[in-house]
# Entry
Amino acid sequence: MDFNVKKLASDAGVFFTRAVQFTEEKLGQAEKTELDAHLENLIARGDCTKNWTEKIFRQTEVLLQPNPIDHTGARIEEFFYEKLDRKIPTRTTNGELLGQYMQDAAKDFGPGTPYGSTLITVGEYQKKLGGAEREFLQASAVSFLTPLRNFLEGDWRTISKERRLLENRRLDLDVCKARLKKAKLAEAKAALWSEEVDKAEQELRVAQTEFDRQAEVTRLLLEGISSTHVNHLRCLHEFVEAQAAYYAQCHKHMQELQKELSSANGDTFPNAFAVSASTSGISAGPSPLSGGSAPGCPAASSGPLDPAPLKIEEVKPPATGTRKAKVLYDYDAADTSELSLLADELITVYTVPGMDPDWLIGERGNQKGKVPVTYLELLS
# Structure
């Protein structure tokens, strides 16, 4: 190994004089050359750009990958693929995985059952949502994250390197100024020091030239921040467009899913309860107590259809056939024949001969009234 002792000693000496100059400046014992106002403003603007770009970049990563702990392995994998300059393999999204689980569950529950067929339908749309999410992630990474990362890991590193070099040139310049000042003081006492003054002045001229040159290089790089802002503005527009397209696609898929579920609602919920009712001995025929509302929309009850409906207060619970039920959602009674419900409370339910299968009689303490089946989970 070619080990240059003289160069090592020279570099160590330069480092030491810079450290002394920096320390004395901090203690107020040495003068410091100030940068011109334009360059100071450019440096402040550059620091501001770097700090906010870094925060936006990190938070965008969190937005696109909300659980960094679960994605640690994925990010390490992406890092190696990027370093090897190879294409990152397509990864299954959470929505696609959820959709697959739902469809697999439907096979065990029975695809012909109301629950199983609904799982298949919802699972299919969850996969579509997952596919839309993957396209959005890919578009965002290319159009937004990559340019921000390139600035932080490329342009800004170059700017930082030149700024450190500028700071070293400034320290060297101030060291030369201090030496010249000491030489002139010594010259005033003895003419023999005139050579030291000439040497100090020559070193100062060289240091000033190097400092000015480095200041110009740093200034040009920092002025390029304006072009960076223009580029990031374009990337931001592309990110918003990708985001809007993603949410529009999700909205479209959810509307289609709601339509499919609504069309199947009329068959699914009554049939599902009919099975439960038959296994528990609860009758499910036409009812004079029914408000005539459609399944799944009991709140639209317009009142009894029978001109002489049975009064709720006269209804007595049967000797057998009562069940406990958990309320799934809040429900406000449409009239005095219905019972208002609060989510998660437990009530006793039963039916009476000739009652609409979409409704049950619910009891909570001394309160009694009709309750919609679709708002309940039968427990026993």
About this structure: Helices lie at 5-26, 37-64, 72-83, 94-109, 114-189, 194-223, 225-280.
